[in-house]
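REQUEST
  id: r-88c1
  op: predict_structure
  target: Hydroxymethylbilane synthase
  payload:
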Amino acid sequence: MNKEIRIGTRESQLALWQANKVKDLLEAQGYTTTLVPIKSEGDIDLVTPLYEIGVQGIFTKSLDLALLNNRIDIAVHSLKDVPTQLPKGIIQAAVLERGPVKDLLVYKQDTSFLEQEGYIANIATSSVRRKAQWLRRFPQHQIHNLRGNVNTRLQKLAAENWDGAIFAAAGLERINVRPPQSTELDWMLPAPAQGAVVAVCREDDDFCKQACAPLNHLPTALATRIERDFLRTLMGGCTTPISAYAHIENETVHFSGELCSLDGQQMFSVMEQAPLEQAGLIGKAAAEKVLSEGGDKIVAQIRNAIK
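RESPONSE
  id: r-88c1
  status: 200
  body:
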C-alpha cells in the first residue's frame, strides 16, 4: 500500500466534500492518498445554460482527461453528472452509499406564492429536468437560468428578485448550507443517480480497482444502474428532462421514471417493480415501455431542440 493514490476532483466545496469522503474511506483501509483539484468546463462557463452547451460530461470531461493522461489515479464525481457511456479506458470503481435523493425549493419569504392563483413566480434552476417538471405543475411561472456551484447559486438567489430556486438536497446538506427557508419537493422525481457519489479509475489499474472495491455499496450501485439504464435507453444524456428513482424494499426493487417535454406540457410516467434477483433489466424495460407508448415522439422533439 505504499503507492500514493491521486484523487482528482473539481474545486467546489461540494466536490471537495465528495473527494474527501473517498479519501477518508481509502485511508481508513491503510492507503495513502492526495487530492488533485482540477477545473471543469462546467465550472469555467457559468453563464450559458447547460442545455445550450450541449456537451455530455461537461463536469467530468477534464477529470477524465487527467485520468487517461495519468495525472490522477481516481476521479470522484456526482454520479448524476456522469454520462451513461464512460470514456474508453475508464471504469466505475465504486458507488458510495447514497445520500438524500430529493430536490428542495429554497425560497425568499415563504411558500404562500405557490397557492396564489394567477401569480407569476420567478423560479431559478439550470436543470432542464427541474424546469420541465416545475412548468408542468406551475405553467404560468417564469424560469431563470442559475449556474455555478452551490454557494454561488445561493448567493445569486439572495441577490436577485426571485421567489425561489431549486437545489438537490444532498448538495446543500452535505456541506451544511441548507437554509431554514427550504422545503422538500416530494412531488418532484429526482435525476437518475441523484445523491450518489462515484469513483472511477483506469480500466487497467488493478491497484485502484482493488482499493475502491470495498467502498462500493451494492444496493446503491444497483439502484443507480437501473436509473441510468432508463436514461440511457431513452436519450443517453444528462441534460434532458428525464427523472428516475429506484429503491429496494423487502427484497423487491421499486422503480419510478418520467419523461417530460421541454415545456412540461407532455409527460410519460412509468412505475415497475421486480424481485431483487430479477431486477437487473427493469430500467431498460421501463424506458422501452415509455418509448412504445409515445415517448419516442418527445425524445425526437428534444433531440431536435438541443442540436
